[in-house]
Amino acid sequence: MIPELTPDLRDLQARAGSFVEQEIYPVEQRIAERGTIDKAEIAELHRKARDAGFSHLNIPVTEGGPGLSMLGQVILEEQAGKATNGLGFIVAERAPIELLELLSPDQVERYARPAFRYERQEAWAVTEPGAGSDVAAIETTAMRDGDEWVLNGEKWFVTGAEKADFLLVLANADGEQTLFLVDIETPGCELARVPAFAHDPYFYQHPEVRLTECRVPDENRVPSGGAEGARKWFTLERLMIAARCCGAADRLIAEARAWSLERVASGRPIAEHQAVQFMFADSLTELVAARLLTYHAAHGFDAGTDPPVLHGKVAMAKLFASEMAGRVADRAVQIFGGRGYMRENAAERHYRELRVDRIWEGTSEIQRLIIARGLLKRGSAPYADA
Ligand SMILES: Cc1cc2nc3c(=O)[nH]c(=O)nc-3n(C[C@H](O)[C@H](O)[C@H](O)COP(=O)(O)OP(=O)(O)OC[C@H]3O[C@@H](n4cnc5c(N)ncnc54)[C@H](O)[C@@H]3O)c2cc1C
After folding, report:
1. Does the model's pTM come out above 0.90?
2. CATH 2.40.110.10 region(s) of the chain?
3. Ligand 1 mean position, distance from CA 135 (Å)
């Protein structure tokens, strides 16, 4: 079941939607004209979004926050997903509350709470050159030396490492995968390379991080299971990817619709050509289906669904929504014709930017494996029951 959106959630949805349209769309246009991100402009946008009250709404009441439900977070993230260049991350700025479950009380005090207060920022370093989908194959090591751990290895695609104060590094320690809190300034921790990506210019970069004889005190070893911790983070991020994909598709359908009513070809608006109408019909139907899957999985978080089942439901939402958004963006480019291939058009930008949603936080193939394994183990009922 998906509960009816409360008036508060409707209000949040409307406010976030108009912030994205009024404050972010003009910035996107300037980025398209310049081809680069202006850091001062982004800092100002960030300040405005925080002042407007969109940030850190996910902090639980027990930590002094508003404790926005997961359904509420998804509603907000969906609006954020309409923006290109990763600027939506500024609106749906989530605090890393997953750290509350993972870290020791002392670590929560030193890392999580400062992050909630915007004093420190984290980045996750799991993937390696030889281990992406297969997290079990990571080769980074942590060797104990007295009260310290010595880390060696290479981490790739560390989103936001260029802005981060500390990393959550997954390493092999004493025969098990363990997370370590590594301050970015620690000797032996370096940003080795900052590659360019298809979605650039983008709010985040994805540096490669090299750890060479990097010494971390034992109090920075995360006590809870490393791989399990990474899995929890993946589940949450996958749900948010699904939500952003729905927002992107919503914008693309709306903008392509407006254009199709205006553009005349062969003597009538292109919206009157059946071939164009069929593209809209498919896009809207797929968007609604993806949104239902996404809201359903979000509600599962709020309703306390069994975590392994929830993991499968989130995988379904991520798989379907990311593939749906790719198809919708492709059709939107087609409906805009040559204009859809211009950087100044959101369809062009989304067409490039949405591609990564079928890759990061677990590829479409990995989502299919999760869904299939869940089905084979538990049967379809826990997943198919609405
Ligand atoms: C822009 C960007 C940002 C990222 N941010 C982060 C981050 O912040 N932190 C982090 O740790 N990582 C991050 N990642 C890494 C991301 O999660 C991985 O790229 C992703 O999990 C895929 O791993 P891989 O690139 O090594 O591909 P591979 O695992 O090498 O996969 C290559 C292909 O093989 C397929 N494949 C692999 N295994 C199987 C299988 N068992 N069955 C069927 N098919 C399979 C895959 O689906 C894919 O099609 C980021 C990646 C990108 C591109």
Report:
1. yes
2. 121-223
3. 9
List all residues 6 or more positions away from 63 whose beta carbon is below 8 Å from its beta carbon: 97, 100, 113, 116
Question: Is residue 124 lining ligand 1, measured as CB closer than 6 Å?
Answer: yes
Residue type at 125 in one-letter notation: A
Judged against a pLDDT cut of 80, whether residue 386 lies above it is answered with no
Where do the CATH 1.10.540.10 domains begin and end in the chain?
7-101
Q: Which atom of ligand 1 is nearest to the CA of 123?
A: 8
Is any ligand 1 atom within 6 A of the Cβ of residue 132? yes
* CB 363 less than 6 A from any atom of ligand 1: yes
Architecture of domain 121-223: Beta Barrel (2.40)
Ligand 1 atom closest to 197 (CA): 1
CB 360 less than 6 A from any atom of ligand 1: yes
Contacts 24+ apart (CB under 8 A), 227-234: 227/135, 227/136, 227/170, 227/177, 229/98, 229/102, 229/168, 229/179, 230/124, 230/126, 230/135, 230/170, 230/177, 230/179, 231/311, 232/98, 232/101, 232/102, 233/98, 233/124, 234/361, 234/362
Please say whether the beta carbons of 378 and 309 come within 8 A: yes
CATH 1.20.140.10 occupies which residues in the chain?
A: 227-384
- 335 falls in which pLDDT band (50, 70, 90)? very high
CA of residue 359 to ligand 1 center, whole Å: 6
Q: Which residues pair with 209 in a beta bridge?
A: 155, 191
Quick one: fold of 227-384?
Answer: Butyryl-CoA Dehydrogenase, subunit A; domain 3 (1.20.140)
* CATH class belonging to 7-101: mainly alpha
5 pLDDT band (50/70/90 cuts)?
very high
* Cα–ligand 1 centroid distance for 174 (angstroms): 26
Mutation test residue for ligand 1: of 124, 156, 360, 367, the one with most atoms within 8 Å of CB: 360
Task: Say how many Å lie between the CA of residue 362 and the centre of ligand 1.
Answer: 6
